[in-house]
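Lab channel / #folding
Pinned by the channel admin:
"Please post every new chain as: sequence first, then the C-alpha cells as a reply. Keep commentary short and put observations after the output so the thread stays searchable."

First post following the new format, from NK:
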Amino acid sequence: MKKLIFLLCLFSLPLFSFSQVGSDDDPRTHFVGLANGQKVYARRVQLKSPFLKSNYFLLDDSIRYEVGAVRYYQNENGFFLKISDPYGGTDDFAQRVLSGRISKYYVSKTFYNNYSPYGPYGYGRYGYGGFGGYGWGNSSRRNIYFFSKDNGELQSYNYNNLREALRDNPGSLELMDQYRKSKYLETGVSLAGAGLLIYGFTQSFRNSANTTGFQVNPTVYAGAALISIPWFTGIFKKDKLTQAVELYNYNQK
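Reply from TO:
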C-alpha cells in the first residue's frame, strides 16, 4: 500500500510543476502577468484566436485565461505588454523590441483607404454584402511605436517625448540634436527634389507640345535622385533616436 501511494505521488509531481504562481527567480521564462498582480509561470504560453470566438491564453495546454485578465505575457516570441488602442479600437499587446530603463514597444495596425461612395465603411457597412473589408479602398499595415521609462507609463515614441525622457544624459541629448538636424536636412532635400520634379515635368510637357514624341527633361531625373536620398540613407544606417536610447540604457546600467 505504501509503495502504491509513493508511485502515485511520484507521477503526480509533474502535474503540479506546470503553470504555477512563481517568484521572479523562477527558471521558467514563459509567464503571464494578471490584472490582479499575480505572475503565473509556465513552460508554454499561447495566445489562441479561435474562429468567431474570443481570444484567450492557454498555458501548458491545460490552463486558460481570458485576454481581459492578462496585462502582459512572455513566450518564445518575446515580451508583450497590453496597451490601449490609440485609435479607439480594442486593446492590443505591443511587443518589446528594446529592453532597459527605456524600453521600446510596437504594435502593427491595419489602416484602410476608403473610396466607397456609400460612406467610410462601404455598402452594407463592411464592404459590399459584408465582404471585401472596408469599402473599395486599399489597406496598408503600419507599425506604431511606444516607449516607457523605468517601467512607467507608455508614451508615443517621438522626438519631443524622448528628449524629455533622456534629458539627464548629455550624450543622448547630443544624438537627439543630430537627429533633429538630419531631419531638417532631409526635409530640405526632399522639397528641393519635389521642386525639380515639378519643373522637369512642366518643361517636358511644354517641349513635347512643340515636337513629336515625349521627351523627359533631365531635371526630372535629378529631382527623383534627390527625393530618394533620405530613403536610401535610412536603409543603411541606424537612426539617431535608436542610438540615443541605446546609449542611455548602456550608461544607466
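NK: The mean pLDDT is 77.
TO: also worth noting, The longest strand covers residues 102-113.
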